[in-house]
Amino acid sequence: MNKIKLKNQTYDMPSSWHEVSLTQYLALTKIDESYTPLKRLVYTISILGDVPLDQLYEVNFEMLTKIDLSFINKMDKTLQKIIEIEGTKYGVVKDLKSLSLGEYVDIDTYIQEPIENLHKICSIMCRPIVSEDGDLYIIEKYNPETMDLRSKLFLEKMNIADLFAISNLFLTGVSSYTEHMNHSLSQLQKKTKKMKK
């Protein structure tokens, strides 16, 4: 974290995606696209540093240019299957074809608004590891109640570097899920047509 001082008040400003929470990231995605680049910068600083907008508007422009947000354009492309939050290791679901109906239904519901529900999707796809041996691990069985608690934890404590590290696994999994569901629906439709004949 970098420290910035504005009007005799010190704020913590992230210096990497490891220091940006999922909550902050979701707030960044809601910044109005129609804003000018300068106004977007002000809102970004306000969100990342938890700086009230009215205080930022009182700062001179030169002070704003000294705030380093260069990390925003840098992303570590390393994939991870395991992340750790508050001492607990979480593993990513390896095979979507083995998901239960409950998991499929919940993913299908939350994926309708993927940005708003990112923490919920993550909490389904990434669960506590109950057994581990090198690169092999077994994750906790799906439980909607623990998923709900985990989604709240992820919203506050998951950093965006971890999210990006596992997101390609999610994207691969979600596209596999969509492909699998389309295939299943196609097979179901064929069976239904045969039964009607």
In short:
With 197 residues, the protein is α+β, with helices and mostly antiparallel strands. It contains 8 helices and 6 strands, in the order ββααααββααββαα.
Structure description:
With 197 residues, the protein is α+β, with helices and mostly antiparallel strands. The chain has two domains: 2-73, no CATH class; 82-185, no CATH class. Helices cover 51% and strands 16% of the residues. It has eight helices and six strands. A four-stranded antiparallel beta sheet has the order 3-4-5-6. Strands 1-2 form a two-stranded antiparallel ribbon. The longest helix has 37 residues, at 160-196. The protein is elongated, with a radius of gyration of 21 Å. The N and C termini lie far apart (68 Å). Mean pLDDT is 82; it is low at 173-178.
List the helices and strands and how they pair.
Blueprint: E1 2-6, E2 9-13, H1 22-29, H2 37-49, H3 53-57, H4 61-65, E3 82-85, E4 88-92, H5 101-110, H6 118-125, E5 126-133, E6 136-139, H7 144-157, H8 160-196
Antiparallel strand pairs: 1-2, 3-4, 4-5, 5-6
Helix pairs in contact: 1-2, 5-6, 6-7
Summed up, the domain count is: 2
Structural class designation:
alpha+beta
| Major pleated sheet | 4 strands, antiparallel
Q: Would you report the number of β strands?
A: 6
* Rg over CA atoms: 21 Å
Descriptive key words:
four-stranded antiparallel beta sheet, 8 helices, 6 strands
